[in-house]
Amino acid sequence: MMDSPTDLFDDTSPQIHAFAPNLSSAELPGVHTQPSTGRPPPSFRPPGFPLIHHLLQPGGEHRRISGQLNTNPSTHRHLEDRNLEDDRGERDGEVEEQGMDRGEEEVIEREDKVLGIKKRHSDATLGAEWSQDLLKMKRMKLENRQRDGEADGGADRGCRRREGGREGRRREREELKEQLEEARERLQALQEKVWRAFGEKHMAEEEKNRRCRNANSGTADGREGDVGMMEEEDITEGMYDEEDIDGGKMEKDSFPPLSASPLDHFHKQRGERQREREGRMERGRGGGLHLEGVMEGAGLWLDCGGLIRSDWDGGLEDDGEEEGQKFAQALKMELGSAVARVIDRVLRIYTETTDFTPSSLPTAISFLPSDVENDGRREKGVWMGLLTRERGEEKMRGKEEKLAGQDGEREKQLQKMSNGNTLPPGQPHHTEPSDLTMPLALQRSPDIRKAHPLLGPPLSTHLNPSHPNISLHHPSLPRPPPLSHPPLLPPASQTKDPTSSFQLSSSSSSSSSSSFPAPPPPPPPPPLPLPLLHYSMQQLFSRSLHHPQLPHLPPSRKDYLNSDPFLEFSHPSAHPSFPPLPLLGHLDPSLARHGGRERDRGMRGDGGMRGGGGLDGGELYLTPGGVYTQEGLSPCHLKKAKLMFFYTRYPSSNTLKTYFPDVKFNRCVTSQMIKWFSNFREFFYIQMERFARQAVREALTREGAPRLGRENQLRVGRDTELYRILNMHYNKSNIYQVPERFIEVSEVALREFYSAIWTGRDSDPCWKKGIYKIICKLDSPVPDAFRLPGCPVG
DNA sequence: CAGATCCCTG
DNA sequence: CAGGGATCTG
């Protein structure tokens, strides 16, 4: 399915993403102190959790459900849209500009891909319908639970209503039966919708599924296989199939999909079953009677089936209230599990087809063990996730250009200011590319490309057009450090006030730069770093859960998808519909409260919102968008913020709100997070200054080999000490691949510092201001992956 | 003057 | 990293 070419969003531009969670020692020669190189690769196999298993959880259910039930799906959606709009509107002008650009692009796209859009729209409608149906289902389930509760209560008062007991039970049964039927109808409707939506896929896989089922129907112990298979299975078929598969003893037609009611079955076989009841109860209870068991693993479906049947059988022989209870219980379970299954399935399919299949995304995704090194030697634990580049190169660029909006301005200014800024008069420009810039951008990309031709052009060359500001022609980059100048002869023009030079340059015309053509520079596509897999699943989960009707980004943001690392997480073994425990804990307060601590120990490394206090921050709140927020910031939020620093050094508070949807922002929290970034910057600049000074020192001492010194000191390749330090600070676990863009920005900063120090500008009390100003303009958009709640890495 | 940053300190 | 004063900006 990953490679199925024809699909909804085949128009999206492909994007190359390197999935290299761990950098090898080869790449990081300086990292020897860190034992990380021996770290096993991150687990790509998340716990198999049904998406909505929490719906079956007695604790956290009501709050959540009521919160959603009481909300009209459509208004709900509107609210979310509004939020998004507002969000965008609130962001500063640059971003707003960006948004407009995106809108423009959307228009163009519409013209270009009417078909695709149509599909998308129908998808949206379907999504809405589904969400409504899901809500109804949930409601029914809830009602059922209440009814059940009443029934239980009734049993307690059994003696009082003894006269009407039998009649009451019968009526109760009837009602339950009706409800079940109703539920089935809804399920069927749902199924049909799914069928309609994924008809082609279904057709294609029907055969396969049939075979699969047949093959599986013989195996009683099909848990593992089931889960694995279900991933591939078409939901329309698999919706009820698990029951068939379950237990060899079960007749295949015991629960014919959507046809005979289990109740009929119940009545029919009531007598004969009594005999086998005991053994079955053993099996049933052992197999999956306990809800926890059901929830805990991938065996939900199977377990539910076993549970119901065994319970049922067990209840048959009990006369009186107990039987009624059992029956009600069984019904309840059936309903609950059915609803859960359907929702889970729908969500899974939905997320699959929307977020993970090539249909919605740039073509094929492949994860290969990276033997990306020149010699092709294999690096353990390093994986490359590649989104093969289709034809979208051009389009991508176009998008980037439009996206640039925000950075365009910055770029322009940068161009201006860097032109002749600190560049010493007479300093030949030509030395830059070879001496300084080249080592920067070309560090690794060529190697990667060698191993993976699909990656397309070298990163540097690809990025260049879109990152004028940091490309080979970047104004600040090209500026060669005045190394070649005698230390004692700093160019007079730049000796003093750094701001003056800055202003000077910024006042010059933007077209003054020969390396910068008039058209505004294209936007920087988010680099190619990759969050961990489990994060992607969190994202998927939250997307599908919170935006069932809009599983992806709003159309206007679709462009981001292409460069969203979020897309990089398609691994065969990692199914989107299995959210990691952490997220579930995050979403379910009760879970978090109870199990959070214990699991913390055993499951650490799973990441998520736990990490020593994911939920310690404070109370959870359910936002109108359906996202749980918490007061206070957790260590995971800090981690995320640090990773975000790779993209944005100067986030606005609105940006923060956008990218921390699970945080309830108040004045305190906002300022705390601002403070975080302030601290990040501080650290960053301190390191830059430190290394710049060191470079200056070295340049002074080894006068004879300035070039060497320059090479070694003024670049922030992944093999440098400076990089190691930065990586250690912002990406301690070294799980997230530092975006190339950040490295480039770091180099810009380093050179700025170097230049300033070299020219003696650092004597000015506010000599750093100019540098800050430059760096602040190099912020790039944060990948959409960060927009979702949760923690990117463990 | 408020808010954002910077800068220093613990 | 947080606190808190100083400084800048609009």
UniProtKB/TrEMBL annotation:
<feature type="compositionally biased region" description="Polar residues">
    <location>
        <begin position="415"/>
        <end position="424"/>
    </location>
</feature>
<feature type="compositionally biased region" description="Basic and acidic residues">
    <location>
        <begin position="264"/>
        <end position="285"/>
    </location>
</feature>
<dbReference type="InterPro" id="IPR039350">
    <property type="entry name" value="Prospero_homeodomain"/>
</dbReference>
<feature type="compositionally biased region" description="Basic and acidic residues">
    <location>
        <begin position="392"/>
        <end position="414"/>
    </location>
</feature>
<dbReference type="InterPro" id="IPR009057">
    <property type="entry name" value="Homeodomain-like_sf"/>
</dbReference>
<feature type="compositionally biased region" description="Pro residues">
    <location>
        <begin position="517"/>
        <end position="530"/>
    </location>
</feature>
<feature type="region of interest" description="Disordered">
    <location>
        <begin position="249"/>
        <end position="289"/>
    </location>
</feature>
<dbReference type="InterPro" id="IPR037131">
    <property type="entry name" value="Homeo_prospero_dom_sf"/>
</dbReference>
<feature type="region of interest" description="Disordered">
    <location>
        <begin position="21"/>
        <end position="48"/>
    </location>
</feature>
<dbReference type="GO" id="GO:0000978">
    <property type="term" value="F:RNA polymerase II cis-regulatory region sequence-specific DNA binding"/>
</dbReference>
<keyword id="KW-0805">Transcription regulation</keyword>
<feature type="compositionally biased region" description="Basic and acidic residues">
    <location>
        <begin position="77"/>
        <end position="92"/>
    </location>
</feature>
<keyword id="KW-0804">Transcription</keyword>
<feature type="domain" description="Prospero">
    <location>
        <begin position="630"/>
        <end position="794"/>
    </location>
</feature>
<keyword id="KW-0539">Nucleus</keyword>
<keyword id="KW-0371">Homeobox</keyword>
<feature type="compositionally biased region" description="Pro residues">
    <location>
        <begin position="477"/>
        <end position="490"/>
    </location>
</feature>
<keyword id="KW-0238">DNA-binding</keyword>
<feature type="region of interest" description="Disordered">
    <location>
        <begin position="450"/>
        <end position="532"/>
    </location>
</feature>
<feature type="compositionally biased region" description="Acidic residues">
    <location>
        <begin position="93"/>
        <end position="106"/>
    </location>
</feature>
<protein>
    <submittedName>
        <fullName>Prospero homeobox 3</fullName>
    </submittedName>
</protein>
<dbReference type="GO" id="GO:0048468">
    <property type="term" value="P:cell development"/>
</dbReference>
<feature type="region of interest" description="Disordered">
    <location>
        <begin position="65"/>
        <end position="106"/>
    </location>
</feature>
<dbReference type="GO" id="GO:0007399">
    <property type="term" value="P:nervous system development"/>
</dbReference>
<feature type="compositionally biased region" description="Low complexity">
    <location>
        <begin position="498"/>
        <end position="516"/>
    </location>
</feature>
<dbReference type="GO" id="GO:0000981">
    <property type="term" value="F:DNA-binding transcription factor activity, RNA polymerase II-specific"/>
</dbReference>
<feature type="region of interest" description="Disordered">
    <location>
        <begin position="143"/>
        <end position="181"/>
    </location>
</feature>
<feature type="region of interest" description="Disordered">
    <location>
        <begin position="392"/>
        <end position="436"/>
    </location>
</feature>
<dbReference type="Pfam" id="PF05044">
    <property type="entry name" value="HPD"/>
</dbReference>
<dbReference type="InterPro" id="IPR023082">
    <property type="entry name" value="Homeo_prospero_dom"/>
</dbReference>
<feature type="region of interest" description="Disordered">
    <location>
        <begin position="204"/>
        <end position="225"/>
    </location>
</feature>
<feature type="compositionally biased region" description="Pro residues">
    <location>
        <begin position="38"/>
        <end position="48"/>
    </location>
</feature>
<dbReference type="GO" id="GO:0005634">
    <property type="term" value="C:nucleus"/>
</dbReference>
